[in-house]
Amino acid sequence: MPVGRLSSEQLLKDNNARDADSISSLTLNQKALTDVSCLADFKNLQRLDLGFNNLTSLEDLRPCVNLKWLSVVQNKLRSLKGIEGLSKLTVLNAGKNKLRSMDEVRSLTSLRALILNDNEIVSICTLDQLKELNTLVLSRNPLEEIGKSLMKLKSLTKLSLSHCQLQAIDKSLKSCIELKELRLAHNQITALPSELAQNVKLRNLDLGNNLIKSWSHVKVLKSHVNLRNLNLLGNPIAEIEKSTNKIRKALPSLQIFNAKPINKNTKMEKLDVNVVDEFPPVTDGKEIKEKERSNKKSKHNVTMDIYSENGEHSTRGQRRKKQKSKDDLLRKESPVHDNNDAAPEQKKRKKSKTAETSELNVIDDTEASFMELFQAEETAGNPNGDGEKGGIGKDVKDGVLLGDLVCIPTEKKKPKERSFDHPSQLQTSTDEIGMGGLSTWDD
Questions:
Q1: Closest C-alpha to 76, from 92, 93, 55, 58
Q2: Each residue of 335-350: pLDDT tens digit?
């Protein structure tokens, strides 16, 4: 078989199958492929991972009309021609290629997640027909404006346009009333439009490293009562204490501001877990560990170090002794069951079941972050957790979802320039299902 070319015979052999129609999923990444014409024989293929190869065309995929999930991240594509007829496609990751246009996706009416980060796209085509689209990642493209392309995307919940060349948002997001996560870091934005008040469900907003100078340029944020996570680091306004105080006062529900918890006394368990995971606070972890230990103590001593549950005064040493005695007694009385053989099997079944359901659930879950989307892709491709990458985004250095799309690691030496495009969240073998920012997508 020529180097870079697939053969049906080899695929059947590798998958222990006799009939091409019996195969619904193929993972063919990192094989230096240039020709995949043999995939025309696999009529029932629904999931296909062709990431990290040398493909220059997708014309060979025209016969694969049953495809629902497709990753061609990090190839050598200059066009998406060949996918126009894949009407059942729900997830498409074509990040890290050399695409200059995205016009071919307009006919993919079943799309829910579209990841096109790190390309050369200069304009966003009209996406009016993509009624079910909820995740869109276009970070790291030379886009200067959003225009009217997103005006009818009423189902959109996650959008990443970080590291582009945007100077304004204008009315472009007015109709995206379901939007909950918006990544606009590393652009040239000077102010937020009043129309942003329509996006009342917004919870996570990353505006790091733009050109916002004063409170008057972001006062529309007063309308965002649901906002939990806001990043303005790297903007002139972030250095003005008076302005940052106004922002905090105007947003009483804010839990994380500029990558840090609003106040050091806030109990971590009261914060939105998803938000904390998506935008880790800039700390060494000591503070959180101290609070965890404090919370554990409070379960046994309502008033911490002064009184025990029965109201009697006791010292730490006395309480430790009592607790140790109770633990010893419980160990003696508790029957020992030999479940060593059953436990691994139960865990395996549980892990497999989770892998099967997590992918679509995460895509449809409006609360899920970009990072979680990419992680779900990776898990689905490797349910056994054997260390191999199998998801939409491998080598996501920027963050969490598909192919380095949404999350971008920031330099430790410049903490003030950090944005939600954190590398740990988008940079995973799953470049953020949409590759966007900290959210696990590659901003």
A1: 55
A2: 444 444 445 555 555 5
